[in-house]
Amino acid sequence: MRKLVFSFLIVTLPIVLFANSDFVKVENGRFILNGEEFRFVGSNNYYMHYKSNRMIDSVLESAKAMGVKVLRIWGFLDGESYCRDKNTYMHPAPGVFGLPEGMNAQNAFERLDYTVAKAKELGIKLIIVLVNNWDDFGGMNQYVRWFGGIHHDDFYRNEKIKEEYKKYVSFLINRVNTYTGVPYREEPTIMAWELANEPRCETDKSGNTLVEWVEEMSAYIKSLDPNHLVAVGDEGFFNNYEGFRPYGGEAEWAYNGWSGVDWKRLLEIETVNFGTFHLYPSHWGVSPENYAQWGAKWIEDHIKIAKEVGKPVVLEEYGIPKSAPVNRVAIYKLWNDLVYNLGGNGAMFWMLAGIGEGWDRDEKGYYPDYGGFRIVNDESEEAKLIREYAKLFSTGEDTREDTCMFITPKDGQEIKKTVKVRMGVFDYSNTFEGISVGVENLLFEDEIKHLGYGVYGFEFDTTRISDGEHEMFLEAHFREEAVRDTIRVKVVNRAQYVLAEEVDFSIPEEVKNWWNSGTWQAEFKTPDIEWNGEVGNGALQMNVVLPGKSDWEEVRVVRKFDQLSECEILEYDIYIPDVEGLTGRLRPYAVLNPGWVKIGLDMNNTSIDSGELVSFDGKKYRKFHVRIEFDKTPGVNELHIGVVGDHLEYDGPIFIDNVRLYKKSS
Fold first, then answer.
1. First CA to last CA distance, the chain
2. What is the distance between the alpha carbons of residues 521 and 237, in angstroms, rounded to a whole number?
3. What residues have CB less than 8 Å from 333, skipping those under 6 apart?
C-alpha cells in the first residue's frame, strides 16, 4: 500500500528547474537569493524523514501559509535499533545507507527525497542536519559504539569514526532525488548542510577539538558540494570572551567554555558560511523572571560578534515551554524584535508541527506537543505572532504598534509569597513615558525599575492582598496614548498540602511503570533498571556507570503520574552503597514533561560522604533525601528523576525509593 502511494506521488509532484541564482548565497554578511537580500522567519521539524506524505505535506503547507521561508530538518537516523523503532532505515550500520535488502520497512532517504520535492514545489528552503550530538535518532554516541569508543567526544577524534561520517555525508550529498531526478548537491531547495545538531566537546574546554573537527568536515563538504552553504549547527556557546558575561550572572557556563564550544572561532572558519545559535533559558538554568532579558542579551552578543566577523547569523532554535510560568508570546515578541532590529538574518522557532496520525495525534488532530514547544498554524497568539514577524522579515513592511504585556506572572497562574513581576514594553514610536501596575487597591509605579531591553519589573508581596482570584492590570503610557494588558491570578498563601501520589517500590510490579529516560556522559548497564527487595522495603535499582571525569554525568528514570500537573512538592530518597574511597558530589534534580521543565536544579547538591549512613541486611548505604518545591505546572504528566554525578567515579547500582508528590488540599 505504501509503495503504491509513493509511485503515484512520483508522477504527480512537479519537477521545477532552477537556475544557479536560486541557491542561497552569502555576500557582505548577508544571505542573497535571486539577487536580493534574504531575511527570514524559519522553523524546525525532526520527523520529516520517517512520516507519511500527508504529515510531511501538512508541515510544509503550514510553513507556506505562515510565511515561514526556511525549515531545518534532520538528515540522519543512525543505528539499527533507532531505525527499527521508526520502521524507517537510513544509516542502520557502518557503510549501510538506506533500507537493507529484503527488509519490509520505509527507506528514510525516499522520505527525505519526498520532503525535498514537496518543499521545492512550495518554495521553501531546507537546512539539513547530518548528525545529532544527542542520543535521539542515534547520534554521535551511536558512531562511538560502532567503533568501540569509550566517550562521546571520541566522535571528534577517532579516525575510523570520522571516516564513517564522511562516507555518510558523501552518500547523502551525491544522492539523486527519486522524485525530481536532481542530485542533492545540485538542488537549490537545500539552503545549507549543517555538520551536527548542537555539537559539544566537554572534554576539551579550550574548544580546539571542535574547531579542528569543523575545519576538516566543512572543508570536506565544500570539496564535494561547492553549491551549498555550510554551517555548524551549534548552540552558540562562548569561550570566555573579554567583556562578555550573561545577563544577571545566570547560566555562566554558556559563556565560560564549559561545553567545549568556541563560537567565534567556529564562525571564523573559512568554510563555515554563517553562524547559528540556539536559545533555551528554561533548559539552561536561567530563572523564569530573567528568561526575556537573558535571551535578549544572548541575541545581542551573537549579532555583535557576527557583524565583527562579517558573516550572517541565525537564531535557528529558540523556545519557551508552554508549561513555563511566563507569557512566552511576550518573550518571543521581544526576541524577534531584537533579531530584526539589530540586523540578524533569520529567526527559527522550535518547532512547527502539522497534522498527526495514529498514536501521534492529539485531540485536535495535530501532531502531539511532546516537548511543550509546538506551534501549529492556528489562531493561537503564538501562531499569529509568527505570521506577523514572517511578513516583517520577508518584506520589511513594519506594521508593529506600541504595546505592553505581562511576562510573569502569566494569565491564570497561582502565586504566593513574594513574586517577581516582569513586564515588556514595546516602544516602536520612541514615545514611551511611564508604566504602572495595579491589583485590588494597590498601585505600583515608583517601585518599577527598567531591567534592560524594554523589560520592567518589581517585587510584589502577595500577602498584602487576600487569597483568591484577582485581576492585575498593566498600563504603559506613550505620548499619544496609553495601552493596557490585564491578567487574572490566584493568590494561595494559606494553602495546605496533602499527599497526592506515592511509590514506595514495595512490590516488583511498581518498577514496571518506570523506564530509562536517558543519560549524558554516563551510561546504563544491562539491565538498566530493575526491582531490588533488599534496600528499604524495596527500591528501584539503576545499574549505571559514572566515569567521574565531568561535573555533569547524568542518568534518568521516568514515570507517568496522573496528578502531576496539580502537584507542587516532590520528595524522594537516593541510596548508594557505601564504597570505601568514593568521592565526588551528587546533583539530584527532576524534570516535568511535556515542556521539559527542570525543577530543583542545584537545590539538593551534596558531597557523597555527607549522606546518612544506613544499613539493610548487613550492607551499608549512603542515604540522600531530596525535597523540591516547584510551581504547579499545567499539562505535565511525566516525572523524570535525574541523578547527576559531579566528578563521582562509580560503577554499580543506585537506588530510588519513596517517591512522593504533594498537592494543595481542596
1. 54
2. 19
3. 385, 405, 424, 426
DSSP state of 197: B
Question: What is the model's pLDDT at position 93?
Answer: 97
Query: CB-based contacts of 592: which residues, under 8 Å, 6+ apart?
Result: 323, 564, 599, 630, 633, 636, 638, 639, 640
Q: Could you give the 3-state DSSP secondary structure of residue 90?
A: coil
pLDDT, tens digit (0-9, with 9 covering 90-100), for 606-661: 999 999 999 999 999 999 999 999 888 888 999 999 999 999 999 999 999 999 99
In a 3-state reduction of DSSP, which class is residue 355? strand
Non-local (6+) Cβ contacts of 251 within 8 A are: 281, 284, 285, 286, 294
DSSP assignment of 629-649, as one string? E----TT--EEEEEEEEES--
**DSSP H/E element including 101:** none
Angle 409-410-416 from CA coordinates, rounded to 5°: 40
Q: Choose the catalytic residue: 110, 164, 194, 198.
A: 198
361 in Cβ contact with 314 (< 8 Å): no
The answer for residues whose C-beta is within 8 angstroms of residue 629's C-beta and 6 or more apart is: 568, 569
Long-range contacts of 82-85, Cβ-Cβ distance < 8 Å, separation of 24 or more:
82/137, 82/138, 82/142, 83/108
Whole-angstrom CA distances from 492 to 55, 288, 466, 500, 636 are 43, 19, 9, 18, 21
| 317 part of the active site | yes
Q: Do residues 177 and 117 touch, judged by C-beta distance below 8 A?
A: yes
Cα 557 to Cα 530: distance, rounded to the nearest angstrom: 11
Which letter, b or e, does each residue of 333-348 get, where b requires 16 or more Cβ atoms within 10 Å of its Cβ?
bbbbbbbbebebbbbb
Q: Per-residue pLDDT averaged across 393-397, rounded? A: 97
Written as one letter, the residue type at 639 is: L
3-state class (DSSP) for residue 214:
helix
pLDDT digits (tens, 9 = 90+) for 127-183: 999 999 999 999 999 999 999 998 899 999 999 999 999 999 999 999 999 999 999
Q: Report CA Rg, the chain.
A: 26
Tell me whether residue 530 is one of the annotated catalytic residues. no
pTM: predicted TM-score of the whole model, two decimal places: 0.86
3-state secondary structure of 2: helix
Q: Which residue's C-alpha cell is 540556539? A: 278
Judging by beta carbons within 10 Å of its beta carbon (0-12, 13-18, 19+), is residue 383 exposed, middle or buried?
middle
Of these residues, 235, 317, 553, 554, which one is catalytic? 317
Give phi and psi for 663, each to the nearest 5. -130, 170
Q: Which residue matches cell numbers 565560560?
A: 256
Any idea what DSSP says for residue 15?
P
The CA distance from 549 to 555, in Å, is 15
